[in-house]
Amino acid sequence: xxxxxxxxxxxxxxxxxxxxxxxxxxxxxxxxxxxxxxxxxxxxxxxxxxxxxxxxxxxxxxxxxxxxxxxxxxxxxxxxxxxxxxxxxxxxxxxxxxxxxxxxxxxxxxxxxxxxxxxxxxxxxxxxxxxxxxxxxxxxxxxxxxxxxxxxxxxxxxxxxxxxxxxxxxxxxxxxxxxxxxxxxxxxxxxxxxxxxxxxxxxxxxxxxxxxxxxxxxxxxxxxxxxxxxxxxxxxxxxxxxxxxxxxxxxxxxxxxxxxxxxxxxxxxxxxxxxxxxxxxxxxxxxxxxxxxxxxxxxxxxxxxxxxxxxxxxxxxxxxxxxxxxxxxxxxxxxxxxxxxxxxxxxxxxxxxxxxxxxxxxxxxxxxxxxxxxxxxxxxxxxxxxxxxxxxxxxxxxxxxxxxxxxxxxxxxxxxxxxxxxxxxxxxxxx
Length: 431
Prior knowledge:
nucleotide-binding, phosphate transport, transmembrane, membrane, 431 residues, 13 helices, alpha+beta
């Protein structure tokens, strides 16, 4: 049943006015009587208003709610109901915050809430274990004054989502990886993960590959030598010649794989970029490599168009840069059909970088394969790649050589045009 509280107030007001008028009618002073009645009514209303104000000020306790009826009853009830809803909402929010805090505290990754000025707003328990940051003690302090790592400071300044790796300030044997996650209002979460186990596994894998490759190289060389001797033996039955040749070809391919694995292992083990290195005569090296490709892989099958800036030389590791040239040239010849035109360029860019590009007009590479081309042993066409004699490591080697020389490798492809561009930074370009 819906109660019309204002009808009660109208009835009360009418009753007061009516009673006051009736009393005033039978007295010789009607005006003072009416004024007195109205002032009394106003005073009663002010008293009720004072009761309501005092109840609101004292915290709206249910047992102290003003006892009244009409509109005052409804107003007090609505205030009380609003307080109950607000308290219930706060209780639920507090439960969610407590649950969220418990979940974040249980995570193995450190999570630190930062404001726009890098002040610590909150930190979970893992932040204390990995970084030595304790929520109760360090809240309000700038994180860059507690963690003195230049890579981490640069990440905070850039405000980017890239990842940085650095040793734990609490234990130098631990390797941590951090990234920033943006929030609304300029706040950010610094997420730090312990990747020591993964780093150790990576080192173990690299050591195993390097050791296994070294151990395989010697017996494989012996086997290849014996197969060459058998192949040259005049007494060798003719029906064994073809299998022996195939075995020697596969042994040679395995030797190439081992050489590439050793080269890749060496590049991966070099954790820092090299010094400027020696002067590398790129034009001469390119002419030699292009001539070798023209006389072997590309002979009578591919057309080579060459544009070389004659005086453009760089600093670096000549052996490694030569592997970039040979791998990119061989890759374009091996993985394109006969009749393909390959355009080779060596030139300087407007920003001072030097660019070595190999571009062909072959069928192209499907877009889904492009991000994976520099992965070890990744093949777009398994059967065709093996038939061409590729090891699946060439582009991985190229990527690591370019990274080691502070450069970049960019790959683009569409039907009728595939390009590989190796960019060397301006600081490595010689005048």
